[in-house]
Amino acid sequence: MVSIEGSGGENQQKLNMYAAGCAIVASMISIIFGYDTGVMSGAMIFIKEELKIHDTEVEILAGILNICALFGSLLAGRTSDYIGRRYTIFTASIIFMIGSILMGYAPNYGVLMTGRCIAGIGVGFALMIAPVYSAEVSSPSYRGFLTCLPELGISIGVLLGYISNVAFGGLSLKLGWRIMLGVAAIPSLALAFGILKMPESPRWLVMQGRLGEARKILLRVSNSEEEAGARLRDIKEAAGIDVNCNDDFVKPDPLKKTHGEGVWKELLLRPTPAVRWILIAAVGIHFFEHAVGIEAVILYSPRIFKKAGIVGKQKLLRASVGVGITKFIFVFISTFLLDRVGRRRLLLVSTAGIIAALAVLGACLTIVENHHGDQLVWALSLCIISTYTFVAFFNIGLAPVTWVYSSEIFPLKLRAQGYSIGVAVNRLMNATISMSFISLYEAITIGGAFFLFAGISVVAWFFFYFLFPETKGRSLEDIEELFSKGISGRAEAVKSDK
Fold this sequence. Notes:
transmembrane, Sugar/inositol_transpt, symporter activity, transmembrane helix
């Protein structure tokens, strides 16, 4: 198999701007999702007050989007194999637009929940397809950077959501939160039209036998004809097509399913040893991304800061903006580190930092909660600092690596639906934390909740250390080899790090 990195030359070191443009447009759907996540943290304050809902209903409202996203992501895997990556992004935009309109209209809790459920299905589509599309149009040299753009989009969206909370929080109780939620329909519609101007994934086209179209697109997303030809040969080999065949149209072998049929059997019932380890790694990293408790901070930061001693709606909302700014800054930094430092090293450093930040946050919240005198300014300050530190370490490593790593490790035929399983687990864990955090901290105290998250983070560090080989600089078609030896693949990772 030809490895792009092995072909050498200066062209392989340059970022192809057309490929970058494709990834940026695909990542716009992630900005819309991030906005919904960020804006809901503040909107819930006003929704609870106007609709007179209790904490259990608040938890359900926060988490139901991710329950629906779970089903959306599973559906999106098969959909993207059938209609293509580009039209799947279009579908996600339309679904999310409908959900946003309903949430912005919402005269009552029932309609609000319906809109949030519909938006959740769109979110599931978006989270599954944007990184896959970005990975499939990227060269190995810049795949980490371009595949990280959806995560950067989420951070931009979260920050915009927090800013929207502050901007619209001064409007009337009835109008403010509806504008916060409904305004997301506008960029959704714009993206639906914008994505139709983008090319289809060349790897999906090869799976359909449309080699001529795939070659034309590869020439645009590569820096030279030599690079495009090498990438096409790798994709053909991965798809089981003769690398010397005519690059026009090849009728797919009827024994080789091209629309995703039979993939579940290869993933779950009869996986090869390499595919089994890949699936464990993908499901594991998506599980731990939210099991460490990040959603508790993103969605409930006003409550956390209130517990720490900050009072007043506007002060709480402004403190939450700091979470969004921190998230954006460190995801932005990570986009430049993924292809230089590597996925594995960033992941391990990030998780270690998460453990330390959560331990400090848990300790400070416990001290504040058990102190009954004057406000402890030092403890309040440490709570804010450790919260921002947690968000910083999370977003410089674990957050972007989760999406980059799991989008690149699956073999071509299994990528879309295998990745969708990881996203489904991701949404399930997101929903679990979103819908249980209030109940959890009421049961074991808010400090105890963050100590629990710290303990889970320790388990995550060892999981990553033993099971995750480095994928930096390898073509998508070469990565399966890294998992062929199971846990011993770690030796390859350590060698790559050096």
